[in-house]
């Protein structure tokens, strides 16, 4: 029976929507702090742990995916994720339990499940590599759009801990059902009648690098740093979105939750838009443009008081944030081939984990110590300005395997003879 690759893509998007609910964490921050007396930094650390563990688990999931296949990894991730969020409902005055359940257990599930649609769909769509990787992770950006207003309503109706229980069950059902459809194409498969030509072919590796070969290329670490820098800036806003809107725009928690939902559309839209654009303007130019845009946005953000303008600026910041995740899988596949995208891009996602420790903790610490967001936002703007240099200098790897060099040597001898 012929497999419908677009059906697999749809399942991948639904899987990512459920996972992307983690981006709605900011709506839990104030209710948890008020009910249990925890500080801003203590509650924010839950989100940080979750994303850090996600990055590590994505790398391990990518390695496991190559051995056992995507379905096993996706189903396991769904079980961990749903269970972690559900068990967080037992965190009554136990901050360590919240860290362990939502942060560690849920983070493991996030990482295992997140890497699967990326690794699978880049193989099913070599003809639309940028666009499909954007779609593959675009659902993740939509997660907060669905979850932020729903979680806010549940918190006000049944309480914050019961909200974790309801959401945990829902996430478990959606991730397991979607994960069941994840499968790789047959070896050597490609769309009928398609071959890479012209500039598209010139940007792509002519062979598949192993993880070990990629690790020996400086480009691998340059791409890691690109993702780290872009993620650090955007995730700092995501972690503080609701209270930031309430403070700068003088709006209620309910209004701030709606603003979070609208801004989260930028996260989803940016993943698709920038990934699609990168097929035309190149991955390098895409990152350079996103960095430049964030220099201006973060510098001007503290002076904005209008709720509408705040939402628009946050929307564009999250477009750039999402654009990094939409573009990077295609970037990795271009430079290192699509066969081992799972483990190689999984390694790249550890940058996400480290960024989750840097960005949110920086902005939370500076907010608490200075009493405002201006200082932290200006520091992030300066970091983005310096970062513009990196996408301009990164270039495709030229590492050759020993037998590649032997073949070239034989050709040179034959030419000389």
CATH architecture: Up-down Bundle
Q: Supply the number of structural domains.
A: 1
The rounded distance between the terminal residues' Cα atoms is: 54 Å
Largest sheet geometry: none
What is the 3D shape? globular
CATH third-level topology: Growth Hormone, Chain: A
Residue-averaged pLDDT: 86
Structural class: mainly alpha
Written description of the protein model:
The longest helix is centred in the middle third of the chain and has 32 residues, at 218-249. This protein has a single domain, classed as Up-down Bundle (Growth Hormone, Chain: A). The N and C termini lie far apart (54 Å). Helix 5 (95-124) packs across helix 14, helix 10 (218-249) packs antiparallel against helix 16 (374-387) and helix 12 packs antiparallel against helix 16 (374-387). It has 417 residues and is an all-alpha fold. It is 80% helix and 0% strand. It has 18 helices and no strands.
Care to give the gist of this entry?
With 417 residues, this protein is an all-alpha fold.
Mind sketching the topology for me?
Layout: H1 5-19, H2 26-36, H3 40-68, H4 70-87, H5 95-124, H6 129-158, H7 160-179, H8 198-202, H9 211-215, H10 218-249, H11 253-281, H12 283-300, H13 307-336, H14 341-348, H15 350-370, H16 374-387, H17 389-393, H18 402-416
Helix pairs in contact: 1-5, 1-6, 1-7, 2-6, 2-10, 3-4, 3-5, 3-14, 3-15, 4-5, 4-7, 5-6, 5-14, 6-7, 6-11, 6-13, 10-11, 10-13, 10-15, 10-16, 11-12, 11-13, 12-13, 12-16, 15-16
Which descriptors apply to this entry?
417 residues; mainly alpha; 18 helices
């Amino acid at each position: 029976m012929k497999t419908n690759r677009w059906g697999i893509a749809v399942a991948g998007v639904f899987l990512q929507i459920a996972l992307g609910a983690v981006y709605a964490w900011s709506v839990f921050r104030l209710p948890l702090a008020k009910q249990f007396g925890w500080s801003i930094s203590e509650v924010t650390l839950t989100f940080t742990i979750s994303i850090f563990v996600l990055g590590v688990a994505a790398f391990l999931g990518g390695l496991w995916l190559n051995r056992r296949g995507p379905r096993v990894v996706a189903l396991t991730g769904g079980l961990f994720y749903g269970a972690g969020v559900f068990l967080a409902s037992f965190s009554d005055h136990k901050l360590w339990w919240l860290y362990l359940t939502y942060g560690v257990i849920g983070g493991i599930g996030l990482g295992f499940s997140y890497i699967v649609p990326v690794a699978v769909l880049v193989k099913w769509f070599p003809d639309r590599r940028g666009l499909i990787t954007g779609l593959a992770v675009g659902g993740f950006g939509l997660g907060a759009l669905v979850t932020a207003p729903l979680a806010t309503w549940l918190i006000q109706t049944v309480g914050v801990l019961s909200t974790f229980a309801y959401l945990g069950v829902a996430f478990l059902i959606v991730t397991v059902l979607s994960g069941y459809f994840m499968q790789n194409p047959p070896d050597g498969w490609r769309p009928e009648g398609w071959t890479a030509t012209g500039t598209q072919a010139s940007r792509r590796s002519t062979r598949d690098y192993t993880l070990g070969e990629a690790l020996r290329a400086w480009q691998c670490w340059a791409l890691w740093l690109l993702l780290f820098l872009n993620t650090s800036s955007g995730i700092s806003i995501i972690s503080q979105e609701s209270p930031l809107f309430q403070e700068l725009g003088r709006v209620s928690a309910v209004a701030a939750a709606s603003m979070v939902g609208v801004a989260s559309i930028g996260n989803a839209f940016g993943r698709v838009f920038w990934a699609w654009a990168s097929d035309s303007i190149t991955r390098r130019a895409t990152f350079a443009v996103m960095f430049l845009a964030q220099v201006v946005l973060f510098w001007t953000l503290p002076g904005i008081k209008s709720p509408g303008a705040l939402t628009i600026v946050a929307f564009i910041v999250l477009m750039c944030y999402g654009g990094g995740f939409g573009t990077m899988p295609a970037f990795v596949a271009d430079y290192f081939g699509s066969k081992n995208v799972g483990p190689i891009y999984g390694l790249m996602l550890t940058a996400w984990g480290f960024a989750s420790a840097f960005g949110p903790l920086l902005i939370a610490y500076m907010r608490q110590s200075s009493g405002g967001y201006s200082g932290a936002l200006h520091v992030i703007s300066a970091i983005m300005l310096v970062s513009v240099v990196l996408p301009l200098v990164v270039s495709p790897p030229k590492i050759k395997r020993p037998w590649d060099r032997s073949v070239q040597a034989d050709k040179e001898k034959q030419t000389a003879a």
